[in-house]
Amino acid sequence: MVQGASAARAGGLGAALRSGARQTRIGRTGADSPLSGFCHPSLGNGLTGYVDFSLTDSLDAEFVLQQAFGTIDNRYVATIGLRHTFIPEWKWFSPTAGIGTGYQYIDDKVPPKPIETHNQMAYVSLGVRGFITRRFMWRADWRKYDVFTHQNQNEEPEEWKFGLAVFF
């Protein structure tokens, strides 16, 4: 993320290690279960890169690319959204909330192949952020996704992230 002394922000990149993300997968797991919404704890590792641009002092537009590494499948997610910082004057600790949409691609590693490999998604997020120095910041986020599938039930994974960002 980028934050200068002025109200305007320039583009920047940051990387965050996903921590404790709960992912669900829809696929065929048995003869009588066409849908499986099982949680797999090994899908909690991944990498996130984001670019954000400040529209006002408290409203940011952000673009996020994520890759989640798992033992059953790898997931690639691209999202775009808006994030509001409630009290931007607080530099060390400011609460945030966001909303956005995205696209998910699932790369299967082991059988059975997922029923759907491409999905549209939407999310809401709550978080906090703070500046360590003028060029470094920390950020923690919780996201609740709604993955739109062609099944009778949509996926609803959650994600917890903590990250450090450097900006220029």
Can you offer a commentary on this structure?
- This protein has 168 residues and is an all-beta fold.
- The chain has one domain: Porin (Beta Barrel).
- Helix content is 0%, strand content 57%.
- The strands form two sheets. The chain has an eight-stranded antiparallel barrel with strand order 1-4-5-6-7-8-9-10.
- A hairpin with a 4-residue loop joins strand 4 (45-54) and strand 5.
- Mean pLDDT is 75; it is low at 1-43.
Summarize this, please?
The chain has strands spanning 13-18, 24-25, 38-39, 45-54, 59-69, 73-85, 94-108, 118-131, 136-148, 158-166. Residues 1-43 have low confidence and may be disordered.
Index terms:
single chain, Porin, 168 residues, two-stranded antiparallel sheet, eight-stranded antiparallel barrel, mainly beta
SSE map:
Blueprint lengths: L12 E6 L5 E2 L12 E2 L5 E10 L4 E11 L3 E13 L8 E15 L9 E14 L4 E13 L9 E9 L2
Q: Indicate how many domains the architecture comprises.
A: 1
> Helix- and strand-based class?
mainly beta
Number of strands: 10
CATH class: Mainly Beta
* First-residue to last-residue Cα separation: 9 Å
H-E order: EEEEEEEEEE
Content of β-strand: over 45%
CATH architecture assignment: Beta Barrel
Report helical residue fraction. under 10%
| DSSP summary: helix tally | 0
| Strand line-up of the largest beta sheet | 1-4-5-6-7-8-9-10
Q: Poorly predicted ranges (pLDDT <50, ≥5 residues)? A: 1-43
Overall outline: elongated
Largest beta-sheet details:
8 strands, antiparallel, barrel
CATH fold group: Porin
Oligomeric assembly: single chain
Mean pLDDT: 75
CA radius of gyration is 17 Å
